[in-house]
Amino acid sequence: MKLSPLLLPILLLLPLPSLAAETLRPFSSDGCSLFPDGTLFNNELWLSCCVEHDLRYWRGGSYAERITADHALEQCVAARGEAGVAALMYSGVRIGGSPFWPTLYRWGYGWDFLRGYKPLSADELKQVERELARAGKSAN
What we know:
By secondary structure, the protein is mainly alpha-helical. It has helices at about 5-15, 45-60, 65-80, 85-95, 120-135.
């Protein structure tokens, strides 16, 4: 099949898929998102658990990494004596944290929407490390 010379300029205008790594946005956390950060008597009781969870969600990665992040949140909140709250939060993040929801707290929210579940490339891992260093955070 011969390509028409008239199609060449049109083909040159089409966007090509990027082979370069995406650009990571700076880390941000809203605490426990749409959930309280603690109890009436200690209003930040599990806030640090949520911030750690946000770090993992911001970074994103594979489906298995998301499961690990969600279990870590549940265990962290339960360790503060709130097993019932931990189970509720776990259910909430499993339902509401999908990378396919157009929310600010979805899995991989540091990257462009619809990244999905995808292991980070070497360049993307370097971006994560640079941003964590800039923000004074550690990469657990």
